[in-house]
Automatic annotation (TrEMBL):
PANTHER family: CONSERVED COMPONENT OF ABC TRANSPORTER FOR NATURAL AMINO ACIDS-RELATED. This is ABC transporter ATP-binding protein. InterPro entries: AAA+_ATPase (IPR003593), ABC_AA/LPS_Transport (IPR051120), ABC_transporter-like_ATP-bd (IPR003439), BCA_ABC_TP_C (IPR032823), P-loop_NTPase (IPR027417). GO terms for molecular function: ATP binding; ATP hydrolysis activity. It comes from Ponticoccus litoralis. Keywords: ATP-binding, Nucleotide-binding, Transport. It holds the Pfam family ABC_tran. One of its GO terms (cellular component) is plasma membrane. Residues 4-249 form the ABC transporter domain.
């Protein structure tokens, strides 16, 4: 059994069946990519995994426990962290101050923005933040205002803010969207390092096939709300059904 088990999930928006009969099993310590043409249902599926949407049918088990009916915060506490398309960082805070927010949340169970003012007296947490920044090669940027950083660095910081919570499953929603090639390649390298160094499972939604084929151990192709094929990356490349799904979109 996988660390994440999605069974027969369906989700309707009014007259539109956005997801139907979605079955997905993500094995522990692998990187599983979910790809598919625009409107295939990828974000809807991700939202069902993190408690932002509740499926109409089916079940979602993480580490043997149902996530359905739990709040996004509770799901986060179970060990699922999500990195959004647009980096969710606090632009008017420094890199270090941003890092302290999830650390306070992990310790105290609540987000306490004002607590960053007195953060330097929290030696153990400061050291944890510094270790994490070191791991993602951002130690030299610790005092920078995060709004002034490149998109790649903002993503790197957001990743660090997720990882410092020690998630078992990292969900990435188009982590390289809008990035220049150099930032994309840095993000790929960072994710490879994270995979190697940590006991972590990654599920990634991504349009950039260079990113998908650089990282994924397995790929599920969604089309019109239903998994079309699930296989090893080399089997997905050139798969007639996959080509058809994408060509259909182009047509
Ligand atoms: N809140 C909503 N209300 C109504 N329809 C929605 C809602 N969210 C998504 N949809 C519709 O559900 C379908 C699946 O959308 P979704 O965003 O999950 O696709 P996607 O595969 O992530 O697409 P993209 O690659 O373009 O981001 C689309 O037709 C979309 O318009």
């Amino acid at each position: 059994m996988g660390i994440l088990e999605v069974k027969d999930v369906g989700k309707r928006f009014g007259g539109l069946q956005a997801l139907s009969d979605v079955n997905l099993s993500v094995a522990e310590n692998t990187c599983h990519a979910i790809i598919g043409p625009n409107g295939a249902g990828k974000s809807t599926l991700l939202n069902c995994l993190v408690g932002k949407l509740i499926p109409d049918t089916g079940s979602v088990l993480f580490d043997g426990q149902s996530v359905l009916g739990r709040s996004p915060h509770e799901i986060n506490q179970l060990g699922i962290s999500r990195v959004f398309q647009t980096p969710e960082i606090f632009g008017d805070l420094t890199v270090m101050e941003n890092m302290m927010i999830p650390l306070f949340a992990k310790r105290d169970g609540a987000y306490r923005l004002h607590a960053v003012k007195g953060m330097w007296s929290e030696r153990a947490l400061v050291e944890e933040a510094e270790r994490m920044l070191d791991e993602v090669n951002m130690a030299d940027k610790r005092n920078m205002h995060s709004a002034s950083m490149s998109r790649g660095d903002k993503r790197r910081l957001e990743m660090a803010m997720c990882l410092v919570q020690d998630p078992k499953l990292l969900l990435l929603d188009e982590p390289t969207a809008g990035m220049a090639r150099a930032d994309t390649n840095n993000t790929i390298d960072l994710l490879k390092e994270i995979k190697e160094k940590r006991d972590i499972t990654i599920a990634i939604i991504e349009h950039d096939m260079h990113v998908v084929f650089s990282l994924a151990d397995r790929i599920t192709v969604l089309a019109q709300g239903t998994p079309l094929v699930e296989d090893l990356p080399e089997k997905i490349k050139g798969h007639p059904k996959v080509r058809e799904a994408y060509l259909g979109e182009a047509a």
